[in-house]
Design brief:
268 residues; mainly alpha
Length: 268
């Protein structure tokens, strides 16, 4: 839904006024399973990407907190740790989620499978196409994750000051952190989607030939096509997507962190 709603010049059959209308229209015209297209490639990349992400975050958060605020919780350390962890996470997820998944999700996508999409992109655009939006992804995700981690840790200070395993606080803090970070970085996400999908209709209307590259070009193109409101296309879908996503991620992560730490202590 987010990918579709961020389209700058959508097909008349794929123009939506809201999230509910988009979901209803997609299911009725394209089939019940259409909204889940691309889930397989996301699942393939998510395991290794999140393993690197949280391992790096925990290690750097502890090391930097000892430097900035010994014995306490440093928001600066949380933000830096989250930003560095994003570098590793996006190196794995950018080709899978940002390029392949979004191309599969576009209306009237010419790709019928993950492997077919990978082969076609490799053959027609080269290996570099899988990382065309990597720097843009980082430009978006570094501030997203910095805001995300700082907000989460700040919420935990208020909801769970003793920092014990408390499922409700992890869910609420995760959801709020995801919503705040998602809303704040939507303009960057719109530009990233344009670079990933290389939306033909939109580029053709501005007589842009070849492939669009670079954040500056993406910002200029979005502004020409949609003005300032164009930078916030799909913000509702993005927030609705990120809130449960980050709530689930944090609650599952905190559970395993608690479970594995408790198990290790019991063994000792």
């Amino acid at each position: 839904l987010q990918t579709r709603m961020q389209s700058l010049q959508p097909d008349p059959k794929a123009q939506y006024r809201g999230v509910y209308e988009a979901l209803k229209k997609m299911v009725l015209t394209e089939g019940f399973w259409r909204p889940l297209r691309g889930i397989d490639v996301t699942m393939l990349g998510a395991g290794p990407a999140h393993a690197l992400y949280f391992a790096c975050y925990e290690k750097m958060k502890k090391s930097l907190s000892d430097i900035f605020q010994p014995g306490g919780n440093s928001h600066l350390a949380n933000g830096i740790a989250g930003s560095v962890a994003t570098l590793l996470h996006d190196a794995v997820m950018n080709p899978a989620e940002a390029v392949v998944k979004q191309r599969l999700q576009m209306f009237n996508s010419p790709y019928t499978s993950v492997l077919g999409c990978v082969r076609t992109v490799q053959r027609t655009e080269g290996f570099g196409a899988f990382y065309r939006s990597y720097t843009t992804q980082l430009t978006m995700n570094v501030p997203f994750q910095a805001i995300h981690f700082i907000t989460y840790e700040l919420m935990q200070e208020h909801l769970n000051p003793h920092r014990q395993y408390h499922p409700q606080s992890h869910i609420v803090a995760g959801a709020v952190a995801g919503a705040v970070a998602a809303a704040a970085t939507t303009p960057l996400d719109v530009c990233k989607t344009l670079l990933n999908t290389q939306e033909n209709t939109a580029l053709s209307s501005l007589k842009i030939r070849g492939h669009l590259s670079g954040m500056a070009n993406a910002f200029s193109t979005v502004y020409q096509l949609g003005g300032l409101p164009g930078f916030f296309k799909g913000v509702q879908a993005r927030v609705i997507y990120q809130m449960p996503s980050t709530a689930i991620a944090w609650s599952v992560y905190e559970f395993f962190k608690y479970f594995l730490t408790k198990h290790a202590l019991e063994k000792k």
